[in-house]
Amino acid sequence: MMARGLFRYGMTATAAGLGLLVAAAAPSRERDAPVQPVVVELFTAQGCAGCPDANRTVETVAENPGVIVLTYGVDYWDYLGWSDTFARPEFAERQRAYRQALKLRNVSTPQVVIDGRRHVSGARPPELKAAVEAEARDRGWPPEIEFRETGDRVGVGSGRPPEGGAEVVAVVYQPGQQTVEVKGGDNRGRAVTHVNVVREVRRLGDWNGRPVLFPLPQDTGIDEGVVVLLQAKDDRRILSSAARPEPGRD
Predict the structure, then answer these.
(1) Is residue 169 included in any domain, yes or no?
(2) Does residue 250 lie within any of the structural domains?
(3) What stretch of H or E contains 125?
């Protein structure tokens, strides 16, 4: 158990942090195992012709209980004539890290990475749904993630660290939908909608299997959410995750 005055991840922390987008995960193979959401990361681009359909597909997955969806804009389609308004170079770097960990030949959009363990094309709804359901069934006993009631710090509990170590990152995102009118490139004239757009990924520090407390980003807006991920450094598996509760909710 973590210190008192912290929110434990699971129904309270995740459901409060993402509203209707996150609730209880699918039952674990262990009846009394803690609730653990499935993290779905979409890499997309406003200048990619096939990405709007994938955005819509991922949005339907986000409506399922037990799922945290995060959308990253990448910039390597900007050469087509439209600069993605949400893209940052570090998001493409994150995707390339997954390419190496998952032993893929190259990066592509749209691409969905689930729990850092498997990937699918976001344009294939049945494949995406099956992958999310498979991850939801494969639950164990992840290290606990808990938030201070003040929302300024997060604790990560004890557990066995993976070979190569693990790190804790905070993903700052804008909850809900955002629509952009694209005025150039392959999607010129289209309104492209995104859900849970990531603003920043901030590394908080290393985790060596012992309980540790980290300060959370304090420069986030009142309308922004924060998801904390405990992630293996080598193979990029997400070992545990939680969303910071909204202020005033418990």
Answers:
(1) yes
(2) no
(3) helix 125-137
